[in-house]
């Protein structure tokens, strides 16, 4: 291989490494912001459910508060974008997320699945013997759903909301 080809290959490998590092940093920032938002969202949801708010309304309210917080932090810290006009695209991603969450929680709230989850929770959390486990089943289900939904949200935000502008080549 000639030194010119080696140099060209070396530049290509360096460029690929640089892009991978950039993408990894973006995902790590997304994960950190996502963890903070998830804790906030699940905490809000759990608090509302504890006070007897229906799971669909609790999910809606925790989503709204999470969206407002997350739009600012995700745009600013993850994608380095402060464009407020992207809010409606961001909101569309969260409408999709809300539908996914409520659909999943509706499935969980069927008698058969609810009883199975309650049995599982009682096996692994013996302190729940004198506690109404049905109050935390929704929280358990929401926590299980948060990881796969977070991955979907990252890709939707990256490709649909905060996408990089196409540059002419």
Question: What would your notes on this structure say?
Answer:
α1 packs antiparallel against α5 and α3 runs antiparallel to α5. The longest helix has 48 residues. The chain is 80% helix and 0% strand. The mean pLDDT is 78. By secondary structure, it is mostly helical.
How many beta-strand segments?
A: 0
Unreliable stretches: none
Portion in strands: under 5%
Oligomer classification: single chain
Count of separate structural domains: 1
Q: Mean pLDDT, nearest integer?
A: 78
| Class inferred from helices and paired strands | mainly alpha
Features:
single chain, 169 residues, mainly alpha, 5 helices, 0% strand
Outline the fold blueprint.
Layout: H1 3-50, H2 55-78, H3 87-108, H4 111-124, H5 134-161
Helix pairs in contact: 1-2, 1-5, 2-3, 3-5
Summarize the structure.
By secondary structure, the protein is mainly alpha-helical. 80% of the residues lie in helices and 0% in strands.
């Amino acid at each position: 291989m000639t030194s010119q080809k080696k140099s060209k290959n070396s530049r290509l490998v360096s460029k690929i490494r640089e892009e991978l590092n950039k993408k990894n940093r973006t995902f790590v920032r997304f994960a950190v912001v996502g963890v903070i938002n998830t804790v906030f969202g699940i905490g809000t949801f759990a608090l509302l459910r504890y006070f007897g708010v229906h799971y669909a309304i609790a999910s809606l309210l925790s989503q709204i508060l999470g969206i407002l917080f997350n739009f600012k932090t995700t745009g600013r810290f993850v994608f380095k974008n402060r464009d407020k006009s992207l809010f409606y695209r961001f909101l569309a991603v969260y409408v999709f997320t809300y539908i996914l969450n409520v659909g999943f929680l509706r499935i969980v709230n069927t008698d058969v699945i609810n009883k199975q989850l309650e049995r599982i929770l009682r096996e692994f959390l013996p302190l729940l013997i004198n506690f109404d486990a049905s109050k935390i089943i929704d929280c358990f289900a929401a926590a299980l759903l948060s990881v796969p939904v977070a991955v979907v949200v990252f890709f939707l935000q990256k490709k649909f909301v905060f996408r990089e502008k196409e540059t002419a080549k």
